Amino acid sequence: MNNFHSTSNGELLRSPVAIKQDGVRTGKKVTTYDFKNAMRFSQDQIRTLTRIHENCARLLTSYFSTQLRTFVQISVSEVVQCTYEEFIQNVEKKSILGIFKAPPLEGNMVMVVPPTISYTMLDRLLGGQGKVAAHHPDLTEIEIGVIRRVFMRALNSFQEAWDSVEKVIPELTEIEVNPQFLTMVPPNETVISVSLHTIIGEEAGTMHICLPHVVLEQVLPKLSARHWLATQKKAAESHEVEVLERKLQRTKLEVKAILGQSSIDISEFLQLKKDDVIRLNETFQAPITVFVDQKRKFFAQPGISKGRVAVQVTDVMDEGDDFE
Questions:
Q1: H helices within the chain, ranges in order?
Q2: What is the domain partition of the chain in residue ranges?
Q3: Where does 255-316 sit in CATH, by number?
Q4: The pLDDT of residue 4
Q5: Rg value, the chain, Cα
Q6: In terms of pTM, does the model score above 0.85?
Q7: pLDDT(98) > 80
C-alpha cells in the first residue's frame, strides 16, 4: 500500500513503499504537493483561458500592425498559474505596467510590456524606425501619455476576446514603471500569467497579462470547455443569422400599386388618341392593390406625399397571391 507523511513545511509526500506483485517488488515515485501554494485553476479552465487569449493575440496583432505600420506578430507562448509574488519577481526592469479593471469583474488586472517592446512602440509612434538603444532612459511625461493611449486601445482587443465568456468593459486605471510598487493582491494569491510572445520589426520580447484568481472567481464556471464551446457555437449561429438578415435587408423588391384593370380589343387600342378615356373595372372608392414581387401583399389608398403621388397602406393581406 501507499504511505503518506507530511513534512515540516506543509508538503505532503507519498513514500516510495515497495509493493509485492507476483513476487516482484516495485517502487513508487515520490509526489510532492505544497498545500501553501494550492493550484486553484483546473487544466480545463486554463485551456479555455488559452483559447480566449489566442484570440486576443490575433486582435492585438491586427491592431499593432495598423498603428505601427510594420511587421507585428503576437502569439500565446504560455498560460500558467503561479503566485502573484512569483509573477512580479519575473517582471523585467524598466517594463511598463498597465493596471486596468474590467467590470463586472471585480478587482485589478495588469498588462506588462517589456522595455524592448515598449520602447520600440514608442519610437515607431513618434516617427522613428523602431530602433531600441541598449540603455533605456526613464520615460518622459509625453511618452507616458503616448503609451497610455496604446494601452487603452489595446484593451479593446481584450474586451472583444472576452465577449464569448463575459461582457466586460476594460478601463485603464494607472501606468506603473516599478513593479515593486504594484500591490494588487496578496503575494501568495494565485494568478494566471498569460505570456504573449511579441515580434515588432526586428525586436522581440514577451508581454504578460496577469489575471488574479479573485478577479476570475465569478466567471470560473463559464471557463469550462463545454460551456465555452457551447457559447462559441451559439455566437457563430447568431453571427450567421445576422449576416443573413443584413443580406436580406439589402435585397431589392419590385413594388407596384395597381389602380385597376381593363380589357380592350386590339382595334380599340390602335384607335386610341389624346383625351380618350379607358374605363377601369374598379370604382374610385375601391382600395388599391399593392403587389410585392408579383404577390398581392397590401391594400392602399391613393394620395399625395410631399408633392408626389403616393399610396398609403390601409391593410395587409394574410397570404400573397400570384399576379394574374
A1: 43-68, 84-89, 115-125, 141-162, 213-216, 225-249, 266-270
A2: 4-37, 43-241, 255-316
A3: 2.30.330.10
A4: 45
A5: 35
A6: no
A7: yes
